[in-house]
Structures are given as C-alpha cells and as structure tokens.
Amino acid sequence: MLPQHAADRVDLSAFKSILTRYGEVISSLSKPSSSGADSLEQLDQWRFDELPKEVAQRTIEHGQAWLEQTEVEDLIKWKLKHGKFRPRLTQLVASNPSSTTTSTTKDAFKTYTNDTTSSPLPAITKLSSLKGIGPASASLLLAVFDPLSVPFFSDECFRWLMFESATKGKGWDRPIKYDVKEYRILVERVGELRDRLRKESGEDVSAADVEKVAYVLGKEDGRGTVPASTGRSKKETSPKKDEKAGVSKESQSATAKKRKASPEPEKDIGDGDHVSQPRRSSRRRK
Questions:
Q1: What is d(CA 192, CA 261) in angstroms, rounded to the nearest whole number?
Q2: What is the pTM of this model?
C-alpha cells in the first residue's frame, strides 16, 4: 500500500479518488449466477442504497425500524459474496423464526437510538443473540440502520485501520478474532479517521465510505482480484521479478505467509455453536 493511502495519512482528495474505484472493483468480482440468484453487484446496490432507504422509511412511517428475516438472509448472502464464503452461516441465519428476527432487530435499533453515548456495542450484543449472527454480522445489520456512523466489521476495514499496529501479524495478513473487543477498536479508529478528515477539509465522510475505501485498497494491495483499469500506474502496481525464477518477490512472500498462516474460522465468533437447520428458500422484498 502506498504510504499516502495509510488510514492515518490519507487526505480527502486521495480518499475520494480511491472511493471512485469501488464500483469497478465490485463489478470485477461480480459473477452471473446460473441459478438466477442476485449477483454481488446487485446485492451491493441493494445493501448500500435500497435497504437503508427502506429501513429509514419504516422509522418515518412507524416510528421505529426493523429488518425482515428475508432481508437479514440477503445481507448474509451479500457478506459471503463480498468476503469469504461460509455455507453453514446461511443455514444458521435461515433457522431464525421471522418473528424473532423482527423483534430482535427492532429492539437493537431502539437500543442504539436511545444510547446517550451513541455506542453501537449494546445493540451489537442484542443482534448477536440471533442464530448465526456474531459481532461481524451484527455490525452489518446495524450499519444498514445507520450507514453514516456505524462501520461494518469487514476484514479489509479492520486491517486497513490497524495496518501498522504493534501486534501479531500486520497489514493485509493480520489475523482477526471477530470479537466485540476488536469491533470496539474498529469503531474508535473509524471515528478518528472521520474526525480528522472533517477537521482538515470541512467535509464529512460516512462509515460506509470508509468501508468501501478499505475494500478497494484490500483488493488492490491485499492480493485480491484487481480490475484491469484502476487508474494506478505501472510503477505502483508492477512487482519486481526474481531474475532466475521469473516469479515476483511479492508472490513468493505471499505463498510463504499463506503456508504459515492458520486457517480462518468458518464463522463469526458466536456462530457455529448452534446445530445447523435446513435452509429455507426466500426472496428479497422488492
């Protein structure tokens, strides 16, 4: 990652420039489904644009907001397409009764709204009572309710904001525990970045925008799929070649780290302690 793109150094101009590449990155990762299921690109637009508006409209019309069971299931589909696929997670989430999902999300959103400190943590705890929902997935549900202030606990966002912190593993290879303690740190770092950019430029950026910028950098620099055209120069992107083997030093290093790294858990923290239930088919509300 370029030094000027570090979370504690990036300025608003660079931030916005990276943000403009998000759609291109998503498009490059989105694959059509033979089964007719929504693509990542379709789910992404729904998650960032359509669903937050629908949830906000419920607050206006009913005085409170909630998520339907089908919406939670589709958010998890987005999460797995957007990140790492863990099939058991969809089964666990689908096993929640619709009434329980509605009442739990309604209670969590109310708790967050009434919290005088604007902390998302009490609401995260309530959402994590749903089957298959750990702190990371819970943060996704709450981020739909308040995309301005609540960050989604994504791998890329956490690793970007913690890139050079002194702990085991650094950069895009940093291990993540996906617990409430780490999410608290993420919330603090996102707040610090937003405050700094606001003071420097007078403009506000949302937690959702921070998430998108981190995702672009993670895919471009973190050995993810990179679009053919990202606006980056060859000098920035071309690795040095080993003269004898013709293999990039970055690739050799990545391979070595991959062999040493422990496999990531197949769930959010708190997921997987429940017995898998048969998956119900569902359709997202239009």
A1: 30
A2: 0.78
